[in-house]
């Protein structure tokens, strides 16, 4: 069941699917990112290029289109493609939470694997994956072959950003990290300290690059954030989330 609910402020809305909060949208101020993990993804999007410079972004997962709205507000004239197979969800969001005019946001009714496969080599500066079904990222978005394909569509130096829900001992994150390290040259992970200490489940934001991840900029953001978070560099990622095996294609 899809619900679009007011959230305690003028033009602030929650998009909820089957009882799970999927997106928070502030129509008056699209730069306001209410969910902590979304703010961390926004920090990465801020760091991948000089402030205000347009970038080309592919978003896997749409829901309320919070991050595409953020990029449109902070990097005007950016070209953005959203891969969202749920056409009914997109239609409802467009009707009740309309996008600004000339936003540069195009929504394609296709799943992430097929949508990425259809893109040309070197198409995107950034690929952001924030897609969940029943509280989990679909397995096919985490498989080795798909991660290789993501690397193909990124420009040299481009970044892949993944929101992954996990908890200690991080079996899933370890396997995804192993897959990313086969296709990308650098990686970092951000998370709430309590999640890394195993006190509660949480969202890990994995950022991998065909080049260097924006580590220094993200460390500064982590310290100054309203909800401070921890940034793991590649050595700490290996120490904390190493030992996994790349995920292979599941049964069809």
> Could you give the order of strands across the largest sheet?
6-5-4-7-8-10-9-11
Characterize the largest beta sheet: strand count, sense, and whether it forms a barrel: 8 strands, mixed
- Indicate the CATH topology: Rossmann fold
- What is the typical, i.e. mean, pLDDT? 95
Q: What is the correct CATH architecture?
A: 3-Layer(aba) Sandwich
Order of helices and strands: EEEHEHEHEHEHEHEHEHEH
**How many beta strands in the DSSP annotation?**
11
Number of helices: 9
Over all CA atoms, what is the radius of gyration? 17 Å
Could you name the CATH class? Answer: Alpha Beta
The assigned structural class equals alpha/beta
Residues in β-strands, percent: 25-35%
* Uncertain residue segments: none
Total tally of structural domains: 1
Morphology: globular
Provide a compact summary of the structure.
By secondary structure, the protein is an alpha/beta fold. 33% of the residues lie in helices and 27% in strands.
């Amino acid at each position: 069941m899809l619900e679009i609910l007011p959230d305690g402020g003028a033009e602030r809305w929650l998009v909820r699917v089957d009882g799970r909060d999927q997106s928070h949208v502030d129509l008056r101020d699209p730069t306001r990112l209410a969910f902590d993990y979304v703010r961390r993804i926004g920090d990465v999007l801020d760091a991948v290029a000089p402030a205000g410079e347009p970038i080309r972004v592919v978003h896997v997962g749409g829901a309320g289109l919070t991050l595409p709205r953020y990029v449109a507000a902070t990097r005007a004239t950016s070209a953005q493609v959203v891969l969202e197979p749920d056409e009914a969800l997109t239609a409802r969001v467009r009707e009740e939470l309309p996008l600004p005019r000339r936003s540069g946001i195009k929504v394609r009714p296709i799943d992430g694997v097929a949508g990425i496969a259809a893109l040309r080599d070197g198409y995107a500066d950034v690929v952001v994956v924030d897609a969940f079904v029943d509280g989990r990222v679909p397995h096919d978005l985490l498989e080795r072959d798909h991660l290789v394909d993501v690397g193909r569509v990124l420009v040299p130096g481009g970044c892949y950003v993944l929101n992954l829900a996990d908890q200690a001992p991080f079996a899933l994150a370890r396997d995804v990290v192993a897959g990313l390290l086969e296709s990308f040259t650098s990686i970092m992970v951000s998370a709430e300290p309590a999640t890394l200490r195993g006190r509660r489940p949480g969202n890990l934001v994995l950022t991998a690059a065909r080049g260097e991840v924006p580590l220094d900029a993200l460390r500064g953001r982590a310290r100054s954030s309203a909800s401070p978070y921890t940034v793991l560099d590649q050595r700490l990622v290996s120490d904390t989330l190493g030992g996994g095996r790349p995920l292979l294609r599941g049964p069809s």
